[in-house]
């Protein structure tokens, strides 16, 4: 299953540091993609997000970078720009081509080493490693240090990472694909929407795997023990043609998938956001694309926790 790279024109590469437990992911769209974004969380860390506004002069983006390292991690985007510049890719200006590369980060400084973060060189390495092969998932790239279920602190959290999933439309829209990649570093628990059961999240004790149910505990008065240091990042892409306003709407619709699968979600201590990319010339109703985007995001989030191994002393569903 290819995941995000099921959309033609996209390549994905990761760079991971398994000593420091951090990394970055480069999503390349070198021919340019129409893009839009939707931010629902209140603890975001981003760079160059103004280029995703419908009125911005740069009509297309050439890459998206997702990184660990908190605000320090945006440095990785400079490496991706440098990689693209060498290839002559970017927004045409009088003196040079300038690659348009928005970036979003997660906070992973509380696992591994806090003094090692994604660098420009790591970003360049991720771009150089980008491929149209099936997306590597689990604790890799920007998801290397990702965790979920942090109501009671890291000692009762669980490991997460990156997941990716693609949905192929049928019937009148046969040939249209909507795909997602999610970096899951949520404060809340991850829920399987089909069963309503917690898949990964805050545990009742550091030694066990019984879930506490973060939302229920908060309603009973529990206060966050790990604040302002969480987020879920998602990139959705389609080979259907969209303008920038439609791309932003697709990002909004994709947020539904996050709301189905993370609870609580979009909190004051999360930086939840979605970036939508449109590549290709196929046509499909925006409502159909939005339904598929929500499904793809939901499945990508589930895969991010189900494929995450135990790392840094934090248990993962994929084991050691």
What can you tell me about this protein's structure?
The chain has about 325 residues and is α+β, with helices and mostly antiparallel strands. It has a single domain, classed as 4-Layer Sandwich (L-amino peptidase D-ALA esterase/amidase). Helices cover about 20% and strands about 30% of the residues. The protein has five helices and 16 strands. The strands form four sheets. Strands 1, 2, 3, 4, 7, 10, 11, 14 and 16 form a nine-stranded mixed sheet that branches. The protein has a three-stranded antiparallel sheet with strand order 13-12-15. A hairpin with a 4-residue loop joins strand 5 and strand 6. Helix 4 crosses helix 5. It is globular, with a radius of gyration of 18 Å.
Give descriptors for this structure.
320 residues; 9-stranded mixed sheet; L-amino peptidase D-ALA esterase/amidase; 16 strands; 3-stranded antiparallel sheet; alpha+beta; single chain; 20% helix
How many distinct beta strands?
16
Q: Spell out the CATH superfamily.
A: L-amino peptidase D-ALA esterase/amidase
Question: Helicity level, as a percent range?
Answer: 10-25%
The number of helical segments is: 5
Radius of gyration in whole Å, from Cα? 18 Å
Low-confidence stretches: none
Compute the number of structural domains. 1
Shape type: globular
Percentage of β-strand residues: 25-35%
Order of helices and strands: EEEEHEEEHEEEEEEHEHEEH
Mean pLDDT metric: 96
